[in-house]
Write a structure and sequence with these properties.
Blueprint: H1 12-30, E1 43-48, H2 54-65, E2 69-74, H3 86-95, E3 100-105, H4 110-115, E4 121-127, H5 133-147, E5 154-158, H6 165-176, E6 180-184, E7 200-202, H7 205-208, E8 214-217, H8 233-240, H9 244-249, E9 255-257, H10 270-273, H11 280-299
Parallel strand pairs: 1-2, 1-3, 3-4, 5-6, 5-8, 6-7, 8-9
Helix pairs in contact: 1-5, 1-11, 2-11, 5-6, 5-11
Bound molecules: phosphoric acid mono(formamide)ester.
Binding site for L-aspartate: 82, 165, 219
Catalytic activity: carbamoyl phosphate + L-aspartate = N-carbamoyl-L-aspartate + phosphate + H(+)
Family: Belongs to the aspartate/ornithine carbamoyltransferase superfamily. ATCase family.
Length: 304
Amino acid sequence: NRHLISAGDLTKDDALLILDTAEELARVSERSIKKLPTLRGRTVVNLFFEDSTRTRISFEAAAKRLSADVINFSAKGSSVSKGESLKDTALTLEAMGADAVVIRHSASGAPHRLANWVHGSVVNAGDGTHEHPTQALLDAFSMRRRLGSLEGRRVTIVGDVLHSRVARSNVLLLHTLGAEVTLVAPPTLLPVSIGTWPCEVSYDLDAVLPKSDVVMMLRVQKERMNAAYFPSEREYSRRYGLDRDRFAKMPEDSIVMHPGPMNRGMEIAAEVADSARSTIVEQVANGVTIRMAVLYLLLGGDTA
Ligand code: CP
């Protein structure tokens, strides 16, 4: 594959190759080798039209650890504010020699469109409510490092599925890797297409928790929320929040995940987020490793 746009485009072999490559890279960095020469002479452009902390910084760190040149583009302060289109912005960056464009955009489908306009590889760093494939890959990598193979593992994803590109990419990738996914959400925060997703749906978090190997809490995306269909914060937290009592219902060897940024005290209690069974900080570190693996596999060959 020349691009990474959707987790659904990855075969099981593709996904395992990325996870195994990330494992090799993690072993290299555990030997205190911080920088590899693999992508010397290549240019990676980070094209961010939406805010980001983890994804933007980890793609930059990943590209630099592979010795690529990195150009960081933020829509704020650019000629996008003068009305320049995505296409013209992309062509401008390509003229500066981009071998890969990492794009985050509020419009679902923007990376797909970009792939038709540029010659380099396009990596989706989150498009609207559609997909965030490198997040799903780093989540799968984090699960595998804690629990071993994902085959038959029961993963529960909880919360604002409607607005979550993380949930969609995780459901697609985890299904491909043989895990059994259950989504738990208020009916008003599930997409109408949910019946076509390869997963189960439940409205009863307390019933699902004791059977979960992994519980992934989603951020309530207030910025995309229409107040008409959101319960009060207190009601949401009471029914769908992972507090201390709910955490106690999970199996002792299960783990808690969150892609960040978190609303502490809303979808997840601070003491749960900070517990030894939380992988939240590991997920961030693993994000650099997975993005190194993705850039290496897309750009490392002779023909890239
Ligand atoms: N998880 C994630 O995508 O975080 P950022 O929005 O900070 O990149």
